[in-house]
Amino acid sequence: MVSCMMRQSDEKHILGTASTEILLWSSRRDLIAVSNSSGEVFLRRLSWSKVWKLPKTGDGVKVTAIVWRPDSVVLAVGYSSGDMTLVDVESGDIVHTFNPCGEPITALSWENSIASLNEEAENLLLPELLPQPSKVNSSKLDTGSMLEGDKDLKNEELLSLLWIGLKNGLVYGYAFGLFPCCLLKLSKLSGMNETIGAVRSICPNGDHSQLCILADLRAGRSEVLLMTVDTPLITYCLKELYGLGVLYRQITGLMDCLISAQKALQEAWEDALVDLESKMVRYDNNDGQSSLSVDLMELLMFGHAGIKLEKFLVTDLTDKGLKRIGQAVELSYSNMQKLLVKHIVCANYQLSHYLTQLCGLAKQEDRFSCLGLQVNLCLSACRAAGSFTAKTAELQQVIDGSIKYLKTFFRWLYVTILRLSDEPIPPELATSTQQDVRFIANFLAKDFETDGQVRLDRIGQYLRNESLTSITSSKTRPWDMLAEACQTITNFPDSDLFQPRAERSLVQEFTHLEQQVKASFEAIPSAVGQTASLPFMTNLTLDCQSDGLDKIKITSRSINQPKDRCNLIGLTNSATPSSGFYLFEFASEKERKNLTRAAFFSFRRCDHLPPGEYKLSDMQFYNNEVMSVLLLTEENTTSIFLQLSLALLREQLAPIMSRRGPFNSSFQTELFASSVLSQSNLRSVDVNTFIEASSFRVFNDFQATALGLSSSRKVAAIFSAAKRKVRIFDMEVEEEEDVEDEDQDIEDVSDLSQEISKDGGNQKDVSDVDMAVSP
Asked: Which InterPro entries match (predicted)?
């Protein structure tokens, strides 16, 4: 017996111009994720207070799907632009973004595997190193300041897979929401002439060995395709995928640290340029026939300054101004050294450690070759990390030398200004050596000026994505010095050595490292996807236009009980309001493997309900035993919230057969191929026989059209027709409590407005959020 004991706990009016689109309750917390037509995402508590807001990503970009990570620590948001965003629920910070292939995202599902693999993975991987260096806040000069709160994904003990369905019929699987480990091309799997379109729903079973998928056909017909896809390699290699996912998470986190550190390095160098140019750019040369570096070189060689140069040094630059510039430039160089030593070198050391582990896994070919992990690609990534290390050491040496040049240059220029100003010269600065003169001449000739502008090119060339213009001598490059000192290195094969290129900049070496790391994991999704098979597939004709398929209500649920393992998919037969819904059951237990049953359930006149013709507005699985349905009379005067027993519904399901071509299903188990599945040739059941007096709730003054449910939190949100009003209900309340509060279930709107105004801002808090139906 299914009861509908519910009590209204709150009612909110939703202001603003953006319409409501998606609402999804957390299964573990009293939190609700909400999106609107403007592309914004809100997180609210059960009390409706706003936790944080995720702004829109661009004009015209819509939120197309939302899903919680199984532990409700991370929220995944999919957009019409094809971007995926993972958000930390506690802080609202974006922890990761990616774009699978540029196609709009149409469906999301994120589920855990049944088995815990944490202990087994510890035996597979080496112990972790010290914590990763925090990402540098490149917007600040102080390199010691880090981003507050390490925006890293919390680790998981269970292997969770984020499944992403796209508009072009592709399905991607991401371990931990980060590691791309599976790619399913549905058109290729189906072997059909028609190209499969948008994926509408993905429902994996407990061990991810099977996916139930609902997708459109691109043939311009109002048909959808129902299929089950077996992915045996994922089940067979769960431990291996878990280990690879952990490594991928560590590696991508370190790559992000390196990217942020390089941005800060670039900013520190630009700051040094700004400090120099702020004064040096004022120098007026002789009608373009000379430059500041040439005039300074003449001053150094002959000890004589021209009239313009003397005026510039004494009047514009001044000794105090030169001191300030020298201190600022020296500080910028010092910051660059700190970034290299504390962040880039440290992160790259750890990156090399994890890439070495990846090479070790790839050499276990009996376990990892089937996943597409190749030893030669992993070794290339390891060598690229070594080359980046060597280039980092080279840049450190160049910065050390440039600091010597700068100090010597500024000291000489300071003494020159004092002499020209007839000021006394401190004794410690009065003398200079021939080596100092060489330093200054070398600095002015190679590092000070380029194309008439002040540039510190000895360092700046390493921070551009182009070849070096001034290559360091092999006698001073750290890697070449090591190779010369250790003659035994020459006995190693070239494939085992780091291969830094003398002409490459630091940015070029890092770009090469990114490419090699990406190539190491690139073959895995296709290798896993190629082992997939399609045991069941059928077409289903719906009563709507082909351009209205996105308005079909779809709900899915995976049941993983010891004696009952199956996936359920329910969908309306037309754009809502509809006359009924289809229910499909895909068995995944060994005894009933690949057995699929289905039926169509219609709503007409119901004996236990108030008189009238009813249409279905929304539907959603409440838990493993109950399906919740929202009905509306044709006159739109009465709404009914109805709870149906899934056990009774599943008793009415009849087996259907998988066919490449069209077929129908009779009431018996014997099936004959004659036409595509539709309401007319599928078993039809009247829901009237399953409705009991205690299984529904009537709303006479509330046109309810959409709902959102959470069985774990025992709450429901029901929306009005215009989605400007939402009522929150406590579910599964005691009967006595429900009777006591029955008179208060429908509150007066004016009284509610007064309550909100007294509450000090709740009304304002609701104005910038939109509620929506569950996807």
From this structure: APC4 (IPR024789), Apc4-like_WD40_dom (IPR024977), APC4_long_dom (IPR024790), WD40/YVTN_repeat-like_dom_sf (IPR015943), WD40_repeat_dom_sf (IPR036322)
Buried (b) or exposed (e) across 147-183, using 16+ Cβ within 10 A?
A: eeeebbbeebebbbbbbbbbbbbbbbbbbbbbbbbbb
Q: 198 with 171: CB under 8 angstroms?
A: no
Phi-psi region of 361 (alpha: psi -120 to 50; beta: other; left: phi over 0): alpha
The residue among 274 and 255 whose pLDDT is bigger is 255
Comparing C-alpha atoms, which of 747, 744, 748, 771 is closest to residue 7?
744
100 prior amide bond cis, ω within 30: no
pLDDT band at residue 521 using 50, 70 and 90 as cut-offs = very high
The CA distance from 416 to 412, in Å, is 6
Split into its structural domains, the chain has a count of 1
Q: Residue 426 burial by CB count (10 A; 0-12/13-18/19+): exposed, middle or buried?
A: exposed
Side-chain-side CA neighbours of residue 51 (13 Å): 20
For the chain, give the mean pLDDT. Answer: 78
The answer for residues whose C-beta is within 8 angstroms of residue 568's C-beta and 6 or more apart is: 203, 556, 557, 558, 559, 583, 584, 585, 586, 621, 646
Statement: residue 147 has pLDDT above 60: no
Task: Specify if 295 maps to a domain.
Answer: yes
Q: Which alpha helices (DSSP H) does 447-496 contain, by range?
A: 457-460, 478-485
| pLDDT tens track for 350-364 | 999 999 999 999 999
Question: In which domain, by residue range, is 339 found?
Answer: 240-526
Q: How confident is the model at residue 664 (pLDDT cuts 50, 70, 90)?
A: very low
**HSE of 124 in the Cβ direction (CA atoms, 13 Å)?**
24
For residue 545, what are the contacts with CB-CB under 8 A and spacing of at least 6? 222
Whether 17 is covered by a domain: the verdict is no
Residue 117 makes CB contacts below 8 A (sequence gap 6+) with 157, 158, 159, 238, 239, 242
Cα–Cα distance for residue pair 320/305, rounded to 1 Å: 20
Q: What is the pLDDT of residue 662?
A: 38
Q: Give start and end residues of each alpha helix (H) in 494-563.
A: 506-522, 524-530
| 746, part of any domain | no
Residue 97 to residue 100: CA distance in whole angstroms: 10
Name residue, tokens 């007319």. Answer: 680
Phi/psi of residue 130, nearest 5 degrees = -60, 160
Rounded to whole angstroms, the Cα distance separating 184 from 526 reads 8
Residue 450 structure tokens: 């380029």
* Cβ atoms of 541 and 678 closer than 8 Å: yes
- Residue 520 pLDDT level (bands cut at 50, 70, 90): very high
Q: How far apart are CA 310 and CA 358, in angstroms?
A: 62
Tell me the pTM. Answer: 0.81
Beta-carbon contacts of residue 184 (< 8 Å; ≥ 6 apart): 170, 171, 172, 173, 211, 229, 231, 529, 532
